[in-house]
Amino acid sequence: MLKHFIASALLALSFTSCKEHVKAIKEVQEPIPVVIEPIMKYGYDLNDFELVADTVISGATFNDLISDHIVEGQSAYQTANKLNEVYDLRRIQAGKPYKILKRKDSLGTPEAFIYEPSKLDYVVVHFNDTLAAYKDKHPISFKRKTASGIINSTLSEAMAQEGLGLSAIYELSDIYKWSIDFFKLQKGDRFKMIYNERYINDSIYAGIESIEAAVFETDKTPFYAFNYVTDSITGMSDYYDENGKTLRSFFLKAPVNYSRISSRFTRRRFHPVQKRWKAHKGTDYAAAYGTPIVATASGIVTKSSYTSGNGNYVKIKHSGTYSTQYLHMTKRKVKVGQRVKQGQVIGTVGSTGLASGPHVCYRFWVNGRQVDPYKQNLPSADPLPQEKMEDYLMSIESLKEEINKLPFKEQEPVL
């Protein structure tokens, strides 16, 4: 009797354990639901569509792009008219991307036509019972970063070595173009900066948004730069040093970017074309054909002409004291009497007139006398208003501490 009871108990226990085991196996084998994260782009969840991507080829018409993707009851003509309400079809360019969104149904029904004129902008025609068109921009995000570098040859090379692109090079050189002579940089000069990069859809790099603070050390002298909003209504900002002094000057250091001084102001130089010794009352900046030439200060164009010696040239009067002249252009882009702003393109580099190669000869007058601009004590631009000084110094306090703690890159030892 006892044996029968024990056997029954063991059988019951075994049956219970078996059921639990089967239950456990079922729980393990049950599929885990997959959560598909939405991929939002162009106003659609791309998970829901098949995406056909292509590029506009040279000579293609809008009909060529859309004819194979027309919804029944609609036409390429109707689609073109609808798109033209928000974007001029004549601006569609060869080499630009476009896309067709198709539903994941048995027919692959077209849902939308998308054209991207730039990395940031896009236009959409939505195929539906009623055509609809709109234009929009991809979302932009920013990443705050720091960088430092050291000069071995040029600023652009030093920045490229740190992985900084042309956008960063232009921004930094633009900040210091009044206060630092980039033609006189020495090996060992260095820089550091705190800046913000711009990204489209969190992934596509779109250049530098802003430089918050920078220090450029040349000839062992540090030049600070802090970005400060001077007008909260318009959002206008400018750069000032650690004491609130403007980095701007009445004149730019040079009329061209990323060139070299091929000949300086001198009372005696052997002329490469005329083959004789004579005074050279200008500064020559060698640069590639077509390089933009800019006005070094705001003023009024007094001459825009051609002579056998000067070639195409422009002269600008900046005040009762100062005038500048720009020689040997391929093209002149301003007219006599026109008012120009500092940094405005007034022509392009060439070799017209008595020139042995592409360059701009930059001439500088003070009270009607030609002088060497590098030896002049030139005026500064408008200073920071005194009523904003206290706010400025307070606003840069933490930034200054942060950039001072950021180490300069040191010169690597020569092995």
Could you walk me through the main structural features you see in this protein, from its secondary elements to its overall organization?
By secondary structure, the chain is α+β, with helices and mostly antiparallel strands. The chain has 7 helices and 24 strands. The strands form 5 sheets. Strands 13, 16, 17, 18, 19, 20, 21, 22, 23 and 24 form a 10-stranded antiparallel β-sheet that branches. The protein has a 5-stranded antiparallel β-sheet with strand order 3-4-5-6-7, with helices on one face. α4 packs across α5. The protein is globular. 25% of the residues are buried. About 1% of the residues have low confidence.
Strand count: 24
Estimated share of beta-strand residues: 35-45%
**Major sheet, described briefly?**
10 strands, antiparallel
Output the radius of gyration: 33 Å
For the structure shown, list the relevant keywords.
24 strands, 19% helix, 415 residues, five-stranded antiparallel β-sheet, single chain, alpha+beta, 7 helices, globular, ten-stranded antiparallel β-sheet
Compose a concise summary of this entry.
It contains 7 helices and 24 strands. It is of the alpha+beta class and about 425 residues long.
